[in-house]
Design goal:
Length: 432
């Protein structure tokens, strides 16, 4: 096979198409002497959650610091591209970036945060384990990412529909889940088994990591266990047969609405993108659904949004002030109540009023959290997996051919040392 262009080679060529930051928010009165930096820019995903929280916080941050503040919000794929190209080309638009493990190849450009975390005692009160490698991001043994948006991939069920179908909703494996679909659809002829944001291609990997219990690395290279991976590919192709009609290109909002409006008996998605919507007073599903434990035998994906401080930030004190203000415990309750942002802070889940209001979803989320993980894949490896699984799910290639093409392509993708170390610690490396 000829040498392939890397993901970064391709995306460097797209710099001319990068989206510029959002307009600078109005400047407030300076609460303290102006910092060295005359402006501050934060890149974040446009989702109506994280970006909205940041935009609402920005005026108060400007008033406190005297620093003109920009919130640059982009859809996930563009955010990832813009963060990477901003560093690789030395454009240096953003001082703090929101991201995750898929930014691994620019980790050397992020500032270690341990001393700042310790100085502000900012680890106290965090849910145990969320600051560990594999959940928070590290480079050369140094913590470089600080968590702020914690979510675990979930399965939500319509209580009345599953009762009518005689299905408990407790699925030990994804094979159990797909086996229940014909029963549900026979009992409810006008209802699909489940909905899912299929129009976002990267979301399909949640089914793969949930159903696959094999390794991802062998002999220092990315490689799937062929037999196990093919079985999961076949299972995903079967699952796709039980989506709503024309349901293989649904947005997050469309998938949520299909479940809320009774067109699907279950919903598989990130809970933070759905739960507030499902629990609105106008929702016909309010009080009639609950979240169940994510099926195995693999693991539920962890959405552990991190804040990274870029080493070119002109005033690192201002950058750190934004991180601890936006992601600190003081804003946790507001971020959850107003925007639905899952919190890494234990106190939120111990709040008696909130706890009583979330008996239908928090128990499953908190039970799944200890086994949730990030994929141990670089951005280019994850892209290829997602794109190929889309072909398998939609019947364009067989599971056998799809997995073979993944392993063939993956042989050319380097495994970043940071991810290799994490992979070893979570059992994702095949024994030699």
């Amino acid at each position: 096979m000829s040498k392939m262009k890397t993901w970064f080679d391709v995306h460097r060529l797209r710099l001319s198409h990068a989206v510029l930051p959002a307009a600078v928010l109005a400047t407030g009165l300076a609460g303290i002497a102006p910092a060295v930096a005359q402006s501050f820019s934060f890149s974040v995903m446009a989702s109506g959650t994280y970006d909205k929280a940041a935009a609402d916080l920005a005026p108060a941050f400007e008033a406190k610091t005297g620093v003109k503040t920009t919130v640059a919000a982009f859809p996930w794929a563009i955010l990832r591209q813009n963060n990477i190209t901003d560093v690789l080309t030395g454009t240096n638009q953003y001082q703090v970036m929101s991201g995750g493990f898929y930014l691994v190849d620019i980790y050397p450009h992020f500032v270690p945060l341990a001393e700042m975390i310790k100085a502000d005692n900012l680890a106290d009160g965090m849910i145990p384990g969320l600051m560990d490698p594999g959940r928070s991001e590290y480079f050369n043994g140094q913590q470089i990412g600080f968590p702020y948006g914690t979510d675990v991939y979930g399965v939500m069920v319509n209580d009345e529909m599953l009762k009518t179908a005689g299905v408990t909703g407790e699925f030990k494996t994804w094979a159990d889940f797909v086996a229940a679909c014909p029963t549900i659809e026979a009992a409810l002829p006008d209802v699909a088994c489940f909905s899912h944001p299929t129009g976002s291609p990267e979301q399909i990997s949640a089914f793969f990591t949930g159903a696959y219990d094999g390794t991802y690395i062998k002999g220092g290279k990315y490689e799937l266990d062929t037999t196990k991976a093919v079985e999961v590919g076949k299972l995903i192709a079967e699952l796709w047969k039980h989506l709503p009609k024309q349901g293989n290109a649904m947005s997050f909002d469309e998938a949520n609405a299909a479940f809320r409006d009774g067109k699907a008996a279950m919903l598989v998605t990130w809970p933070s993108f759905a739960n507030k919507f499902l629990d609105e007073d106008t929702s016909p599903l309010k009080g009639k659904w609950h979240q169940v434990s994510f099926p195995g035998p693999g693991y539920p994906q962890l959405s552990q949004w991190q804040l990274f401080m870029v080493d070119t930030a002109p005033d690192k004190a201002v950058a750190w002030d934004w991180i601890k203000t936006f992601a600190g415990p003081e804003n946790a309750a507001a971020n959850y109540k107003k925007y639905g942002i899952g919190s890494p802070w234990k106190a939120l889940y111990d709040d008696p009023e909130l706890k009583a209001a979330h008996t239908h979803d928090w128990p499953a989320k908190l039970a799944d959290l200890p086994r949730a993980q990030n994929p141990v894949l670089s951005g280019e490896a994850l892209d290829f997996l997602n794109n190929t699984l889309q072909d398998v799910a939609n019947g364009r290639v067989s599971a056998e051919d799809g997995i073979a093409s993944i392993n063939q392509a993956w042989a050319n993708f380097p495994v970043p040392a940071t991810l290799l170390e994490v992979a070893g610690s979570v059992g994702a490396v095949a024994a030699e």
